Amino acid sequence: MEASGVLSIALALGVGGLLLLWGRRRGGNLPPRPTPLPFLGNVLQVEVTQLIASLRKLGETYGEIFTFHLGSRPCVVLSGYRLLKEALIDHAEEFSGRDTPPTTTMSPRGFSGSIVYGNGERWRQLRRFAIVTLKSFGMGKRGAEERVREEAQHLIQQLYQTHGTPFDPTFLLSCAGSNIICWLVFGERFEYGDERFLTLMGLINANWKLMSSTWGQLLFIFPKIMRFVPGPHRQIYANYLRLAEFVGERVRRHQQTLDPQNPRDFIDCFLLKMQRRGTP
């Protein structure tokens, strides 16, 4: 056998041994899993754009609980009512943390957490404050019923304007639900044709579509690398900045008209909380 052939076999055996060693070390005490590849993890074993369906198919082989590597990140996948109830309800506190959204890795200042995503004591306090405050304004209670009825009347008026012709109700239903949230957070509702309202909804919908695209999935799997790769996924962070500008403008307006004795919405309560803590 020629020297080049021996070298190729030795190289192949060496690489194979390294892959096996890497796979075993990545396993640790994690549940069973398909063998991951370095850097890629298990992404070649699934359809990235059909991730949920692909994970369900893997579950047929590895059971209701297994490990799946998104790139170099190990993730534990749970499926089935029993396991999900045990994790998210019976042990809700232990499973309450959420991973940092990969879109924030595109920020030069990093990410400090939010109500939806985050971990740690700071995030717990923020989430607890948000839940208590929103409940005080009637979220999930009969106190918000009047607002819901009022918005339903606006929705019905919009439906009447279709004059019985076929139409897609998605936009109108989204407007109605979004206005309830705007009332809780901003203290006001918007007309369905309001330019600011349409811009707000457009940015949110655009980000959902981008995050569900192939580019968005790649950003989720390889966040540190995709931060430097040009593509439509970069628009996600740009949209977040525009959303932040919208909210920031509402906050400044609330600061000018804030009445400590009569908080009107979530923003007022948050500003009062900051004042009590001495936060500028």
TrEMBL record:
Pfam families: p450 (PF00067). Gene3D superfamilies: Cytochrome P450. GO terms for biological process: epoxygenase P450 pathway; xenobiotic metabolic process. GO terms for cellular component: endoplasmic reticulum membrane. Its cofactor is heme. Signal peptide: none annotated. It is a peripheral membrane protein. The keyword Iron applies. GO terms for molecular function: arachidonate epoxygenase activity; heme binding; iron ion binding; oxidoreductase activity, acting on paired donors, with incorporation or reduction of molecular oxygen, reduced flavin or flavoprotein as one donor, and incorporation of one atom of oxygen. Keywords: Endoplasmic reticulum, Heme, Iron, Membrane, Metal-binding, Microsome, Monooxygenase, Oxidoreductase, Transmembrane, Transmembrane helix. InterPro entries: Cyt_P450, Cyt_P450_E_grp-I, Cyt_P450_sf, Cytochrome_P450_fam2. The keyword Secreted does not apply. It is found in: Endoplasmic reticulum membrane; Microsome membrane. The chain crosses the membrane at residues 6-23. Belongs to the cytochrome P450 family. This is Uncharacterized protein. The lineage of its organism: Eukaryota, Metazoa, Chordata, Craniata, Vertebrata.
